[in-house]
Description:
Two copies of one chain form a homodimer.
Chain A: H1 8-26, H2 35-46, H3 52-63, H4 68-89, E1 99-100, E2 103-104, H5 106-109, H6 112-131, H7 139-153, H8 158-168, H9 175-200, H10 205-232, H11 235-238, H12 244-247, H13 253-275, H14 285-296
Antiparallel strand pairs in A: 1-2
Amino acid sequence: MAELGADFPTARAQATDLVRAHLDDILRLPEGGEKRLVDAMRYAALDGGKGFRPFLVLATSQLFDVAPSQAVRVAAAVECVHCYSLAHDDLPAMDDDDLRRGRPSLHKAYDEATAILAGDALLTLAFEILADPATHTDSEVRLSLVAGLAQASGKAAMVGGQMLDISASGSALDYGELSRLQGMKTGALIEFSVAAGALLGGAEAAQTEALKAYARDLGLAFQIADDVLDVTGASEVLGKTAGKDREDDKATFVSLLGLEGARQEGEQKAAQAEAHLSEFGAAATPLRQAAQFVIHRKN
Amino acid sequence: MAELGADFPTARAQATDLVRAHLDDILRLPEGGEKRLVDAMRYAALDGGKGFRPFLVLATSQLFDVAPSQAVRVAAAVECVHCYSLAHDDLPAMDDDDLRRGRPSLHKAYDEATAILAGDALLTLAFEILADPATHTDSEVRLSLVAGLAQASGKAAMVGGQMLDISASGSALDYGELSRLQGMKTGALIEFSVAAGALLGGAEAAQTEALKAYARDLGLAFQIADDVLDVTGASEVLGKTAGKDREDDKATFVSLLGLEGARQEGEQKAAQAEAHLSEFGAAATPLRQAAQFVIHRKN
């Protein structure tokens, strides 16, 4: 497996391909009646994602000379968790979204029961991948990955954030509350993606802290840009339903700061994110470009 | 923490109490908006279960002098997975069951979104519990537990079995197909519960194999009895909707073997289960009684 390219677009495309190939290998279609389940898992996890979290795992791992064969497994586990969360969030009982990545969302392509089960199975698979000796030779590292992913996706982070998001629809959140919600819902998994690379590579504590600080600002910039795109983007470009937040009467960074204010805030967070990377020199160029990408992307 | 009682009813009641106390401790109610989520997790995991899987973990652990403070954590993780699976299986898109353990099922007591998220969070919590150093001092043991639980609950086992079960409604399964389905859907987690005790205690391979063979027969006896109870039991005693299998046109051991044939098959499996315990002597009395319990229980 070659090194990731030195610019963000190339590196991200490579990360997406690597993770897809790895999951394609893991998610072989069985003969029996579980075929439908694995089929749905493949639909959710193999196609069309932006590969942003896999990129973060692989690009951070590369800073510490982690074997790509190990990093790709962690990236695949993170992608499983991300895709399971999208499948469940899109369900009629939750955000009720029929469109995802420009295609019918999982429960529209299959059915609700299959979407729930495929999500459950993807979440479970993530931990199976991390626990496997192929992920890292040091068992303490593998356990830290399992614990870290569980914390980033559990009640005090991703799932808790989604619960807050649903409960908060129609209620007035201030900037601090909205930042906290997004930090749980999307920020924690982004932070884990970056921290995982440092963990795999035995980074020093100060390096890990710098990367986590980068991830926190990056996650906020990402979410602010998402809110801007929900207002300015078209569904066909976004690949998901535009204008959904306003329709759902959700507090967003745009509703709090205005469109121009949100854009400025996103730029500031992206600049802050980059500033945390100073000690990593040219090796961190793709991560710096990623911060610019999240605020200038069209979908 | 005292030893489990030497008879099954006492040991099971103790196992239930111990796991409940442990989960009560873990699932503290937060101040913020996630309160509803944690509340729902507590509703699903703390109340009213038969405690059969926790009993199996604790009783098997005791055969190998495992510290009860470690065994109870694994039992709690297994209970989280079991309760998440019930919460998701009861959803309208799946088995659509409004009654569980004599109370409204989770999505009736809360709502569908909360039931999906609480299930997701319980599954995630299970892996967080297992990865924690408090579960076992040896990191290889903790990793084997994580991998074992992931395999027992994933696409090739519990979730796959539920997918098969849904897909198979109305279709004719033979005995082998139904046994395989139930082995995946309920058997794998029962087998893990027993194997976990052996793993925690560093059992010899032959002992682990004997216990797994016990668990496989026990799991089948358990499921056969479930099918018998679905026909002969009343909803108020079962604590869940009786007659549901026939209503759903599901293949069951009763539809395949007849009521009397299913009863006999259950007794045979329970006897086989007990036979695998011969080498463990009197220490395995609660496990032997458990095999009798599963076929003679009223709910």
